[in-house]
Design brief:
Elements (H helix, E strand, L loop, with lengths): L8 H9 L16 H7 L1 H5 L8 E6 L1 H12 L5 E7 L7 H6 L5 H10 L19 E6 L5 H4 L22 E5 L10 H13 L6
Parallel strand pairs: 1-2, 2-3, 3-4
Helix pairs in contact: 2-4
GO molecular function, one term: hydrolase activity
Keywords: Hydrolase
Organism: Marinomonas transparens
Length: 203
C-alpha cells in the first residue's frame, strides 16, 4: 500500500533471470477501495499474460487481498501458484485502532480503511482459498509504535497470526520487517522455491 512498482523491482529482476515473464503492475492503492482495484486494475495486468501460459502471482501486503477479491469473482483457468508477502489476510489491529484518527484515510485511502479485523472487513469477508498459496510472514519491525498495537510476533503492520489463511498450502515466518519483505534475498529465494516446487524450503 502506498508503494509503486519500483518496490518490486528486485523481485522482478530475479524472477526474470529464472525465466519467468514478469508483469510488475503499478496500481493506485490509496485511491480506491479493494473491489474497485480488483475489478478495474488487476484485470489489466492479467490481460498482459498469454492465455496459454500458467499465470503465477507474487503479492505484497494489500496486494494479497486485492488478488483474493479478484479470484473470488474471476475464474482464471491458467492460474498457477500464489505467493503472498505479509498479507493482512485476517486484517490488522493497526487499522482497528487508527482508522478514526484524522489523516489515516487520507494516507491509506479507502482500501486501507477496509483492512480491519472485524468479521465484515474486506479480508474476513472473502473466505478460504482453493488454489496453491504460500504465505511469508515477517516477525521483525522497524515501527515499534505500531508493533505495540499488534499481537507478537509481527512485522510492524500485521501480526504473523493474521497473515494465515484457510486453505493455504504453506506458511513460513522470516526475520524481516513489512516494508522490506519483497527485497530480502532469503524471501526472494523462498518465493522462487514455492513457484518451482509448490512448497517453501526447510533447512
Amino acid at each position: 500500500m502506498a508503494r509503486t512498482d519500483r518496490s518490486m523491482d528486485k523481485m522482478e529482476e530475479v524472477l526474470k533471470a529464472e525465466g519467468y515473464t514478469v508483469i510488475n503492475y503499478d496500481y493506485p492503492s490509496t485511491r480506491y477501495d479493494i473491489t474497485t482495484i480488483a475489478k478495474e486494475y488487476l484485470p489489466k495486468a492479467v490481460a498482459q499474460c498469454k492465455p496459454d501460459v500458467t499465470v503465477n502471482f507474487v503479492t505484497h501486503s494489500l496486494g494479497g487481498i486485492v488478488l483474493r477479491k479478484y479470484l473470488s469473482i474471476n475464474m482464471l483457468e491458467n492460474l498457477g501458484r500464489v505467493v503472498m508477502l505479509g498479507p493482512p489476510n485476517k486484517g490488522s489491529e493497526v487499522v482497528d485502532k487508527l482508522k478514526n484518527i484524522p489523516g489515516f484515510k487520507l494516507i491509506n485511502g479507502p482500501a486501507g480503511m477496509q483492512l480491519g479485523t472485524d468479521d465484515s472487513s474486506a479480508p474476513n469477508s472473502l473466505g478460504p482459498v482453493n488454489y496453491p498459496v504460500g504465505i511469508i510472514a515477517g516477525r521483525s519491525t522497524i515501527n515499534p509504535i505500531l508493533s505495540q498495537m499488534l499481537p507478537n510476533p509481527d512485522d510492524g503492520k500485521v501480526s504473523v497470526e493474521r497473515t494465515k489463511l484457510e486453505g493455504m498450502t504453506d506458511h513460513i515466518v522470516v526475520s524481516v520487517s513489512h516494508p522490506f519483505l519483497m527485497r530480502d534475498k532469503d524471501v526472494i529465494r523462498q518465493v522462487k522455491a514455492f513457484l518451482h516446487e509448490g512448497a517453501f524450503e526447510r533447512r
